[in-house]
Amino acid sequence: MKTVQVAGADFRVLDRGAGKPVLLVHGFPLDHGMWQAQTEFLVPRYRVIAPDLRCFGESPAAVGTVTMEQMADDLAGLLDSLHVTEPVVFCGLSMGGYVAWQFWRKYAARLRALVLCDTRSQADSAETVQSRQKMIDHVLRAGTQFVADAMLPKLFAQDTFRRAPELVEAVRQKILAARPESIAAAIRGLTIRPDVTGQLGSIRLPTLVVVGEHDVISPPAEMQAMAAAIPAARCVVLPDAGHMTPLENPAAFNAALGRFLEGC
Ligand code: MLT
């Protein structure tokens, strides 16, 4: 891991390998470690850049609200600090995908292609905003246990709990270790993220859309509709996975990612 300065703060980032740069952007409330299987797979052929976003992992803590746009700005600054001038393949999962929309809106020239994993183009519904508010109240009052209990059943396919309990446990520990104020700041950012559905037709980049067949947060039908609205997108639905496709089915995920990267 490297420490790089972005806007006067220290960000932590994994930067390994050489070749076409692939930026791996984690979901909420995790960190770069969720991409371990992809990092090992890609490093022999690509430059893998996997940061901890603001609020998460070992990157700066935050209070107030951290927007998806702020996170996209951080990533642009991080690429500058790493002297990455070549366009990157931006691969984001869920919240990482929300950040990808903002990165595309502001820094399209820095993109070679998009990989959108288990993410959404819609803004939050009123009901989701309400449940996120409840999560903020809980996390600030009582810590991260509530976040872990609320999120884990939705993150993984039913079968993953039986087949790979150690994977679920590792994610639970990661959530428990997150910083309450920072989690709250990121959740506030999630609730005010814009709906980008109307802009999907303007994305001119080669795009791979990946979703787990059992994803209940960003279900396959929604992801397929999203892919259909992006002119150069292809959607793959992966078996034996819920919302955490890169962790739950790394072999199928890496195969789809590898094929896509060869062609762009
Ligand atoms: C994520 O995995 O990043 C979250 O599920 C995003 C969300 O809650 O909308």
Uncertain runs are: none
What structural category do the secondary elements indicate? alpha/beta
Strand tally, please? 8
- The helix count comes to 11
Largest sheet: 8 strands, mixed
Q: CATH superfamily membership, which one?
A: Alpha/Beta hydrolase fold, catalytic domain
Q: How much helix is in the residues?
A: 40-55%
First-to-last CA distance: 27 Å
CATH topology: Rossmann fold
Q: How many structural domains can be distinguished in the coordinates?
A: 1
**The top level CATH class name:** Alpha Beta
> Quick one: overall form?
globular
- Based on the coordinates given, report the CATH architecture: 3-Layer(aba) Sandwich
Radius of gyration over C-alpha positions, nearest whole angstrom: 17 Å
Q: List the secondary-structure elements in sequence, H or E.
A: EEEHEHEHEHHHHHEHEHH
Question: What hetero molecules are bound to the protein chains?
Answer: D-malate
Strand order in space, largest sheet: 1-2-4-3-5-6-7-8
Instruction: Report the sheet-strand fraction.
Output: 15-25%
Instruction: Give the rounded overall mean pLDDT.
Output: 98
